[in-house]
Write a structure and sequence with these properties.
Layout (H helix, E strand, L loop, with lengths): L2 E4 L4 H12 L5 E4 L10 H6 L7 E4 L2 E4 L1 H12 L8 H21 L2 H9 L7 H19 L13 H15 L8 H10 L3 H4 L7
Parallel strand pairs: 1-2
Antiparallel strand pairs: 1-3, 3-4
Length: 203
């Protein structure tokens, strides 16, 4: 049995759900309610000392960090999430990291709430999200070529990172009208079951 400890709105969990779907794997969702603080329970901290989701139990091991999990699935299931050539791999990783390591951490809801609560009323969570998500995605747009997906004509880790970030952008009312490449790629990806069926749904 594959167990995924996740939270329905977590971008990182959303990435792993997409990857599991693309791999054709069946898994059991075990929700960790971040709003209620379940991530800080002794039980969950034993799974992941960082108190984060996702945690994936697979192949008799326990894995954390979404990109590491996705690369593990790619390497053990030969999923083609990274191109075979070094230039292609570094390109895909650059695109992936632009979202997962630049936009996502600073726009983590915990960070945004801390800023809002300590800004003396000068900043709302919405203000914070718009300040960083919009320019981050605008830069991502300029990094894209004219490929079918983010890189080439096969789904890569970059695509797996993009769709959850677009979900967040829509949630925080980010104007994406000036990003035609992102909008086109996102629409194509959402036609795939692994992406559409992994979308956040309240459980």
């Amino acid at each position: 049995m594959i167990n995924l400890f996740d939270y329905w709105r977590s971008s990182a969990s959303y990435r792993v759900r997409i990857a599991l779907g693309l791999a054709g794997l069946q898994w059991q969702n075990l929700p960790i309610d971040l709003v209620k603080g379940a991530q800080r329970s002794p039980e969950h901290l034993n799974r992941n000392p960082q108190g984060l989701v996702p945690v994936l139990e697979i192949d008799e091991i326990s894995l954390t960090q979404s990109l590491a999990i996705i690369e593990y699935l790619n390497e053990t299931r030969s999923l083609g999430f990274l191109p075979e050539n070094p230039i292609g791999r570094v390109r895909v990783r650059s695109l992936s990291y632009a979202i997962a390591m630049e936009i996502h951490p600073v726009c983590n809801l915990k960070v945004a709430k801390f800023v809002s609560e300590n800004s003396g009323g000068n900043l709302s969570v919405m203000d914070w999200m718009k300040e960083f998500i919009a320019p981050g995605l605008a830069a991502f747009e300029t990094m894209l070529g004219d490929d079918f997906y983010c890189y080439g004509d096969q789904v890569t880790i970059a695509d797996i990172c993009l769709v959850p970030q677009i979900y967040n952008a829509n949630r925080w009312e980010i104007d994406l009208s000036s990003m035609p490449k992102i909008n086109r790629i996102n629409a194509k990806l959402l036609e795939l079951d692994a992406f559409s069926k992994s979308a956040p749904i309240m459980r």
